[in-house]
What we know:
Elements: H1 3-7, E1 10-13, H2 21-34, E2 38-41, H3 46-52, E3 58-62, H4 71-84, E4 88-92, H5 95-99, H6 103-117, E5 121-125, H7 133-145, E6 150-152, H8 164-173, E7 179-183, H9 189-198, E8 202-205, H10 208-213
Parallel strand pairs: 1-2, 1-8, 2-3, 3-4, 4-5, 5-6, 6-7, 7-8
Amino acid sequence: MDNAAIFSHVDHTLLAAFASWGEIEKLCREAVEYKTASVCVPPSYVKRIAGAFEGLNICTVIGFPLGYSVTAAKEAEMKAAIADGAREVDMVVNVGDVKNGAFDAVAAEIGVLKKAAGDHILKVIVETCYLSMEEKIALCKCVTDRGADYIKTSTGFGTVGATLDDVLLFKKHIGPGVKIKAAGGIRSREDMIAYLEAGCDRLGTSSAIKLLTGGQAGGY
């Protein structure tokens, strides 16, 4: 697999709370140069990016990184992000609801947000590091039943990021219309290829350019 093929699956990411416009602008220029699938950025920068980089595929996050905002707040974030120019949105599930076994509530929230997203891509971050196998499987059903486009392993802010075991578990239990995004802890070109070969369609990382063109891995 050549670098261009790998880059085409990368959500080039910068979600640090202290990210400056200069850093975001650099991320966007890199995304254009290397033809990444998207840039994944804080929602406060979406509108400015849309005005400065015509045609760039913008992904943003809602309920991020903890996921425990109420559904109405997440829905408002979703609508604002799309109005500002985001084409893809990565939401964090309410992990508290998951731990309480309230999967009907989790599924209902996903449904509300997918309706708000419309034709835009919705990725559901389940934060695997906090979950049992049974909870992961139940979330695969929630994501599938409510029509989300992707299930995503991690925020990159939890205790552990993506693992191949979780990707393989998702692949076994998601429906045919759901894709997989691995994020957090991707540390080498070999990791990237392994995740793609295991069934991922997207990779969320801030380190893709360093990993594919030389140097050390970064953060997310």
